[in-house]
Amino acid sequence: MQYFIGIVPPDDYKDKIINFQKQWDSNDIMDVVEPHITLKAQGGLTEDEEWIAKVKTICKSYPSIHLSIHEPKFFGDDILYLSASSNELFSLHEKIVQAISPSDELINQYFELENFVPHMTLAKTHYGLSKQELRRMAKRAENELTPYPSFEVSFVRVYQEKENNEYVKYMDIPLLK
Fold it and tell me: What are the phi and psi torsion angles at 111 (to 5°)?
C-alpha cells in the first residue's frame, strides 16, 4: 500500500478539470486520482504510518499558503499538466521531505527537493492518450480551463492507494490557521 500527499484545488475548479478530462474517452487518469498538486510523493511514506505524526507536526505550525494555477505545460511529450506556483509551497515541501527522510534514490525517483515542480496533471500517455491527443488537449486547456485560479491552501490531503494505481482520500491535515 502506498501513500502520497497533495493539495486539492477548490471544488468548483476541481470539477471543471474533471469535466475537461472526461472529454477524452481514453483518458483514464480520473480512475487513478482526483485532480491535485503533489506536495510529497510516495517515497518514504511507509505502511507503518509513523510519518503521519511528523507531517501533522509540520502542518500544525505552518500557515496557510497562497497558490496559483497557470498555463498548460509538458514533461517531455508524455505528460500534460497545469503549472502551479507558490512562494511558500517549496518550503513546505522541503520541510516534509526532510522530516520523512527518504533515501537519495527515492528523492531522485520522485523528483523531490531541487527537482520538485509543482503541477496538476491533466493527462498522460500512460493513462490512455496519444501524444497527438495531449497536444490537442493542451491547446483546448488554454481556452477551457481559464481563468486560472489562485487560492488559499488551508490543508493538505493524504492519499492512500486502495487498489493498484487507484488513490483515494485518506485524511486531510490542516495547516495553521
Answer: 55, 55
- In whole angstroms, give the CA distance from residue 137 to residue 123: 9
- What strands lie across the sheet with 166-174, from one edge to the other? 37-40, 3-7, 155-163, 166-174
C-alpha cell at 154: 488551508
Going by C-beta distance under 8 Å and a sequence separation of 6 or more, which residues neighbour residue 156? 5, 6, 7, 39, 55, 59, 92, 172, 173, 175
Q: Which amino acid is at 71?
A: E
HSE-CB at 128 with a 13 A cutoff on CA atoms is 13
The CATH number that domain 3-69+87-118+150-174 falls under is 3.90.1140.10
* Close Cβ partners of 50 (under 8 Å, ≥ 6 residues apart): none
The whole-angstrom separation of Cα 159 and Cα 177 is 22
The pLDDT tens digits along the chain (177 residues) read 899 999 999 999 999 999 999 999 999 999 999 999 999 999 999 999 999 999 999 999 999 999 999 999 999 999 999 999 999 999 999 999 999 999 999 999 999 999 999 999 999 999 989 999 999 999 999 999 999 999 999 999 999 999 888 999 999 999 997
Parse the chain into domains and list their residue ranges.
Answer: 3-69+87-118+150-174
